[in-house]
Amino acid sequence: MDNHGSADTLQSDPLTAAESWMSEGRDVAVATVVETWGSAPRPVGSHLVIDAQSNFEGSVSGGCVEGAVIAEALDVIESGEPKMLEFGVADETAWRVGLSCGGRIRVYLERLG
Q: Which of 48, 72, 84, 100 has a CB 3.0–4.6 Å from the CB of 60, allowing a cystine?
């Protein structure tokens, strides 16, 4: 059997998707929640994988935060330089990116391969 069915399950592992995408020759970045404070939608260790065409699998937060992480991932894929991103209500962008709940998250973003 092929691996296509596993990506459709609720428990699919984004790192499995990343491995598959890399084997297809795609450039891939992974975002990992490394710290949370207060009300955060996803726990530490959550992953979002992104390829150079903005395809993604997994979740680090939800809402507009993921859009911002995907945009940053494209820069990381191109440059190869990792980034530490932080989103929270202390930032004026918090309402715009969907963390109006009072939480903060820190996300480490790196290119794979």
A: 48
